[in-house]
Amino acid sequence: MTLRFQGRVWTVGDHIDTDMILPSRFLYETDVDALRGHLFEGLDPTLGQRIQPGDIFVAGGNFGCGSARPAPRAMHMCGVSCIVARTFSRTFLRSAIDTGVPILECDLTGKVSNGDVVTVDVGAAHVELPSGELVRGLAFPGFILDMIREGGVVPYTRNHLGEQRVA
After folding, report:
1. Hey, which bits of the chain come out as E strands?
2. Per the confidence metrics, is the pTM higher than 0.90?
3. Which of 40, 72, 94, 164 lies 20 to 30 Å from 31 when distance is taken between CA atoms?
4. Relative orientation angle of helices 142-149 and 153-161, to the nearest 10 degrees
5. What residues have CB less than 8 Å from 52, skipping those under 6 apart?
6. CB-based burial of residue 156 (10 Å sphere; 0-12 exposed, 13-18 middle, 19+ buried)?
7. Torsion angles phi and psi, residue 71, rounded to 5
8. Domain of 34, in residue numbers
């Protein structure tokens, strides 16, 4: 998987918690069309239905705060190619990496609007704005980039440890 994405932007603000992203009553929903209808329903009841494959979410600070739940994976399943936020809650950040969802901490506050098309390069840790300006984000170490690229912690571990058993 490449870690470079170009897509249409959806913006949300600060302190968007996991219940706003995916209400708890839908945690075990596996039908993508049904799941899509509930993404962000507490924020905007129509937003989940408007998400198209390849779209990019841009958030303010503390995105994904609240309880630990599969919100990053749900967003990715519904077509979000990557998520950019000024900051992520530590739990959301770890969950995204563990499940192989591309994310980047980068402050785009006031620099993009809904519908803008941007290019996010998670590996190079920057976002190219419609104007061509590059906005730098926080780079991940190589093994974290590999973990995201390989689909998360389980595939990464299998690929790098193989069938070895640790005593």
Report:
1. 4-11, 56-59, 82-85, 103-105, 117-121, 126-128, 134-136
2. yes
3. 94
4. 110
5. 8, 79
6. buried
7. -60, -45
8. 4-161
Mean pLDDT of 130-148: 97
Two tokens at 152? 């998360």
Closest by CA to 85, choosing from 121, 60, 120, 116, is 60
Kindly report the CATH number assigned to the domain that includes residue 16: 3.20.19.10
Look at residue 76 and tell me if it is in a domain.
yes
At 63-90, the pLDDT tens digits run 999 987 788 989 998 999 999 999 999 9
Sorted by sequence, the CB contacts under 8 Å of residue 86 that are 6+ apart come out as 14, 59, 60, 61, 63, 105, 106, 107, 108, 109
Residue 166 included in any domain: no
The stretches of 18-167 forming alpha helices (DSSP H) are: 18-21, 32-36, 47-50, 71-77, 90-99, 142-149, 153-161
Q: Give the whole-angstrom CA distance, residue 156 versus residue 160.
A: 6
In the chain, the number of structural domains is 1
